[in-house]
Each structure stands twice: as C-alpha cells, then as structure tokens.
Queue: 2 jobs
Job 1
Amino acid sequence: MSAPLVDTHAHLDDPAFDADRAEVLARAKAAGVRAIVNVGYNPERIRTTLALTEAEPIVYAAVGLHPTEAERLSPDVLAAIREAARHPKVVAIGEIGLDYHHQTASREAQVRAFRAQLDLARELGLPVIIHNRDAHDDVYALLREADAGAIGGVMHAFSGSEAHVEAAVALGFYLSLGGPVTFKNARALQALVPRIPLDRLVIETDAPYLAPHPYRGRRNESAHVRLVAEAVARLAGRSVEEIAHLSTDNAKRLFRLPSPDAPPDHGMG
Ligand SMILES: [Zn+2]
C-alpha cells in the first residue's frame, strides 16, 4: 500500500538521527511519505532545520520559539525567526503555544512569546503550529483574542475534549493526530477521532518523540506515520487509503505544499 502520506510534524534534525538520517528518510519515502514538515523550535534548531530542507526535497520547515524556551524571546530572536521565515521552504510558524506541564518558562513569558509569534504569523501570512500541554483554556482564549481564524493553523498532537475539537474547528484550525492515538490506554482520545471532521484531520509523528504502538518508548521516525493513519482509519471507520488521501490533501491545503504535478525537486511527486 503506497497511498501518499504527509508527516506534518517531525524533528528529523535531532541528534538522535545523526547516525542514520539518510536511512530514516529512505524508509519514510518507501512508506509513501511525500512531505515532512520539520519543526525548528529555537534559533539553533531553525538553522539545522533549514539545512535539512536544503538537502532533502521532501522536507519542509516550520520556524518558531517553543513555549518551553519562551524566556529566550528577545527582539533579536524574533528578528531571526522573521528572517528564517523568508526561506522558500518555510511553510509555518511553530511550534508555538503554551506548556504548563514542563515548567521551564514562566506563564507570563510563554504568553508573551505566543502573542508575539501569532502577530508574526499574521504579518508573514503563514499558518501556525500550536503546542498545547495542559493549557487548553489559555491556548484557545489567546487564539480567539488574536483572531487566529484569520491566520490558520493546526493543533499539533491534539489532545483535549469534544469541546476542544469544536473550539479548534470553530477557529478553522486543523487537528493533528500522532502516536498517542495508537496507545492502548488512549481511549478518551480514540473516542474523539470520529468527532474530527475529515476535512480538518492531519497526521504526524513528532519524531523522535511519541513513537506509536508497537514502538512506544523507542525512537520514532517519519515512516511510522503510516501506523497513525492505520489507527485513525480503524477509529474513523474508513479505509487506510481514504485517510491517507484526505489527510494528505488537508496537509497540502494547510501548508500550501506544492501539488503532485509540481516539478520533482519540490518533493510532492
Ligand atoms: Zn514537536
């Protein structure tokens, strides 16, 4: 089965892949992955992410400052993100948002960085990739305050309740599912899958993190996005082919990725 897939969130520039990055990318392509959005979440990782996009046609980039590093926000860092976002393979600002689980940055600093980068995304006309960990109320309140529906974006590694599905959809956002939807103890998340409109669903790995069952706890990689598609298909009562095609179409619309008939060096062939 080789229906096309898009991994909408990965960190393949991570040192965890230094020994075998070429093999990881080859396995992704063999599994049908046509595009990967690699997320550069601080100034150093933005550099390694852009270098990867230049070496690998199927890799695109998101650039931003992760909420756990929000204390690093400065005019210089914001200027570096703005400059990086001019790169032709940058398709989003992210990952940005709020993380109340890892307490490495104050809530005030996180809110400041989130607002500043929502403004930047609006200025640049790029969608946002939202990181939300234990911060549902504040994330949705800030998105509404920023009129984020006009910016567009995706809830990365979606978690929450049916009300949060509705809140994201009301904003016109996409919802991205990854490894956790395959976990045996993820019944609440699995029960929400049929509630996600099929034109709002995208899939991801978050590699090297969040490996799906049966690889849970091990290094994740983009080829495993197929396991996410299979789990979503079962839960949504659709075929894997259907989920692959529609999630790929959604990802292309969300990130304005080139269509399959674009020149081969743009990767979506
Ligand atoms: Zn991530």
Note: The chain has one domain: 5-266.
Job 2
Amino acid sequence: MFLRNAWYAAMWSEALGAGSLVPRTILDEPLVFFRKASGEVAALTNLCPHKFAPLHLGKLLPGDRVQCGYHGLEFGSSGECVRNPHGSERISPNCKVRGHSTIERHSMIWIWMGTAPADPSLVPDYSFMDDDSEYHITRRDFLRIKANYRLVADNLMDLSHSPYLHDGVIGGPDTIKSDIRVEQEGNTVKVHRPKQDVRPTGLLDRVYRKDGEPVDIWSTIRWTAPCYILNDTGAYPPGGQRTEGSGVLGAHLLTPETEDTTLYHFAATRTGNVLDKNEDQVVFRQWFSDARRYAFAEQDEPMIEAQYQMRKAYPAATTRPILLETDAGPVRCNRILDELIRTEQQSSS
Ligand code: FES
Ligand SMILES: [Fe+2]
C-alpha cells in the first residue's frame, strides 16, 4: 500500500517548537516528534507500551526524555525505556518504542519510515526553499486532504483540470490545449505542457506583465517517487526566450497519513524577472500565498475529496476509469510506484 523505505515530509520546521511533543500519523503509524536539547529532531512511535496512551500527552523532560502522561514511564530519544518509577523500578526488555530516523532540510522535517538504513542522500532536492526570506517565498502552507495521496498526485500531474476547476486563478480557456509531452528518467516523471500565444492565467499575469496580453507559457511538473512534486511554470513574450519571462516554482509534498487521508505541504517562489520595479513585495507575497491557497483549498480539495468519496461508495463502478491523453503522466507515476512497492514487499517477505 505504501513505500516504506523513503523520506516523507512530516511538517514544516516551524511547526516543531522547542519543548513540545507534536503528534503526526504517517503511513498509518502514530508518531510523536520533538526537539532534543541540541535542536535536532527525534521521532518515536506515539504509543506507550504499558497501556497504549499516546506519548504526546506526556512531558518532555531534561535529558531528551519523554515521560508518558499516564503512569510516568520515561523513554529516551531512540525509544528505549530509561525509567520505571514504580515498584522495583525494573525495566522489562520489551519496554520500548520504535525510534525513527529524521532529518531537517529545506525548511522541512523528513522522516524515514522503513527498516532499511536511512539514506540522507535520498532527501529530495527542494533547495529553493532554503532562501526563506519573506520576499522570496510564499507562506509555507499545509492542508489535510480527506483522500488517498495518489489522487492528490493525479490532480497535480494532470493539470488539464486547471482551465475548469481554476478558471481565472491558475487556469483559463486558452490553457486547455497544449502539446503534452511525458518524460521518464528513473523514478521521476515530468509532464511538459507548453502553450504558445495564449492569454495568461491570472496568477502568471500578475507574476509577469500585468497587462493580460498574450504570452508563451512554459509548464513542467515533475513527480519523483513516492510523492514529491515540483511545478515549474512561467510566461514570456510570444516567440521570445524563457529568460525574458517570469515564473513560479512550486513545491508540493504529499505524505500519506492513512489510506484515506493525505498531509499536503506546499510553498512556492517567484522565478525570473520582476518587471514591476515598484511592486510592494510584502503585498505581492500575501496575494501570491492567498491565491495559491485558494486554488488548492477551495477548488482542488473539495473536488478530490468528492471524487474519493465516490470511489469509496461505488467501488465496482469506479474500477475502470476512461483514460484521456492527458492521463499519461499520472498513469506512468502510478505504475512506477506500484512496481517499487511490489519490489519492496517481495524483498522483505
Ligand atoms: S500508559 Fe504509559 S506509563 Fe502507563
Ligand atoms: Fe488544481
């Protein structure tokens, strides 16, 4: 169902303050995150082995110990029980919780969910988020979508929905037709949807010339298994060069919370030229962040959730979808993911 030996985006760095115990469910596993005194992130299974109280209801003690809030067992940052305050104070060898490898990179806390050794070189490259000055990047945002993560990936990898679902915001009637090209390299799929001499979408017009005049558009959305997405789009003068234009680079990090829910983290930056030298960058940033959140939370989210409910309610009627040419990208992603999960399950059985 899930690929386990991979890094998953757990939360933005700022969501984990010093001294707090933050719960998250990832791949159907309850987890508690906290910062050690050094600032490094630790993650444990959020389930006390005594009577199964969630550990995030306890306390973080000096020495990077988590004290269960129910009867006070204490666990170290790797999950070993370090104190039993009761009776003989004996600690049973089975009294432990699982500790997970974590890494903090690109303003994000990542967790490794598998049993193979965690490989830091496999953290996906979202280094454009490292410059998090408020003039550079949108708000780092988050949604919890009540649908399987593959449907959210399908939505992003097939942007032919934009002219309909996002008309006037990040889509428009001129963006229906485009020469779609799908490219695969290893476990990465790119879908290119360039357009020539079309009216810009609302967002691209605001990012670029603000005159509504026709533009050429570049649009490449990249998926890397299991669920890391990067959208690179922008506008430039018809027949001109991309370097003359302005665009948007958007990170879309999907993490399966459960089979039926997805943690969706997103942020974006401007790329290329800022033509309006008098533009108030703070106002722009606010607008840019709000417009993107509106599109994802008010337009994509209800549609994806409604679609997922239909699939759950009518499984027999929804097993064989009609495929359009625009589905080539998502189909490819799903095949790669199926194969990776199958291989992982075979090697662990
Ligand atoms: S449930 Fe945690 S100590 Fe009892
Ligand atoms: Fe969308």
Note: The chain has five helices and 19 strands.
